[in-house]
Amino acid sequence: MAGKPTFVPIAQAVTESRDEAEVRELISRRYVEHDARVVGDQGDFLFRSRTAWAGGLTVDHIHYRARMEMTTVPFESIVVVSLLEGRFSLTAGRQQSRAGSGGSLLYPPRAELGVLMDRTTIRVVQFPTDAVGRLAGRFGVDPADFRFDAMTPVSRTANQRWTATVTYLIGMLAGPGSSAIHPLMLGAVTEAAATAALTAFPNTTMTVDYLPGSGEVAPAAIRRAIAYMDRHATDPITLEDIAAAAGLGVRALQTGFRRHLDVTPVGYLRRVRLERAHRDLQAADPTNGDTVADIAYRWNFPNLGRFAAYYRTTFGRRPSQTLHT
User: Fold this and answer.
1) Whole-angstrom distance, CA of residue 204 vs CA of residue 216
2) 149 vs 73, which has greater pLDDT?
3) 170: closest CA among 279, 50, 1?
């Protein structure tokens, strides 16, 4: 007769501290080695955390009452941060992304990171990289070739889906009376986290070739459309232009983008242009005459009010704030 399955214990911890060194040591044990410092009044520092973990899956609710700067060694796990309050900036090499309340950011694995947090309350999910590697294999992507291509979700809907998954994960590990979890359930919960990350954040599974079934659009066509938009982001291209470059009709193009990227082609093009404008604003020098208007027009945003609204929704700040930083 088979014995009862061995349940995996769920560990939980609640921490509150005003000691920066203590918090730095705790976060280094829980995640990776890092350096952290308070920017501004150190006497205002306060850290609170409620965390739960089982196996390689961790969920954390963290509050920093201070403006913090951090640098980290590369993560070997997948980490995604969701903001409830405050502002958060993440830098990996030449990539930089920002998020405000309600936004999410994925830490690129195996990259040194720079983090800036301004009085943030965040939810953090951490799980093993091999969880996404196994899923990527189902799409025909060798785990060694898999990568995440950006830190921010592909769309607002994708971000909402990730946020809903975080709520589910917290309920499974940190709910009342949660002290152990069946190993099959832990595997399913970890896979749910990996699946949500793969469908929310740009990665190689979104552009891999495969043999499509009846009525489906192969990701190769989506990749052709993306390459065309990347090359012509400064040009006044139309939806028909993009569809022609992909070798599709307009309706098939729209269906393919929704199915594979959960965003419309126009929405994707807008995001490409916003990312380019964001980089130009970061590199611009207002003392040399660089202006928000010049950069907005360069990237095909003729309406400055709409550009400012799109920019603030995406990056959590006004274009003028980035220009003058």
Assistant:
1) 19
2) 73
3) 50
* Interval 102-130 mean pLDDT: 94
Nearest Cα residue to 54 out of 113, 126, 123: 126
Helix (H) or strand (E) holding 221: helix 219-231
Confidence band, pLDDT 50/70/90 cuts, at residue 4: low
Contact criterion met (CB below 8 Å) for 207 and 219: yes
Query: Which residue do the tokens 């410092």 mark?
Result: 37
- In sequence order, what are the residues at sequence separation of 6 or more whose Cβ sits closer than 8 angstroms to the Cβ of residue 283? none
In the chain, where does the domain assigned CATH 1.10.10.60 lie?
268-323
Rounded mean pLDDT, 259-265: 85
Q: For domain 268-323, is the CATH number 3.20.20.105?
A: no
Percent of the chain with pLDDT over 90: 61
Residue matched to tokens 């995406």: 314
What number of CA atoms fall less than 13 Å from residue 64's CA on the CB side?
Answer: 26
> What is the C-alpha to C-alpha distance for residues 164 and 167, in angstroms, rounded to an integer?
5
Q: CA angle 98-36-325, nearest 5°?
A: 40
Lookup: tokens for 316: 């959590």
Quote the CA–CA distance of 55 and 304 in Å, as a whole number: 49
Q: What own/partner pairs with CB < 8 Å and gap ≥ 24 does 207-210 have?
A: 208/139, 208/140, 208/141, 209/140, 210/139, 210/140
The three-class DSSP label of residue 271 is helix
Q: Domain 209-262 belongs to what topology?
A: Arc Repressor Mutant, subunit A (1.10.10)
CATH superfamily of 8-203: Jelly Rolls (2.60.120.10)
Domain with CATH 2.60.120.10 in the chain: 8-203
CB 122 within 8 A of CB 106: no
- Any residues with CB less than 8 A from the CB of 212 and at least 6 apart, and which? 218
